[in-house]
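Milestone M4 deliverable, item 7.
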Amino acid sequence: MVSRENQVMVTSATIALIVLFALRAFTNLGVLSRVAIVVVVIIVTQSILGRVYQ
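Output delivered:
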């Protein structure tokens, strides 16, 4: 069985990759801006998933 921590990590990574590719494809933001947005998305995603899996 897959633990909840692994599920949260995989889900967060997947969402982060989707956001990163979308930012790269649809915006002209620099690398640091994209990384900052992805970090925020990861933090928010882990917070939401942490509450869901409690």
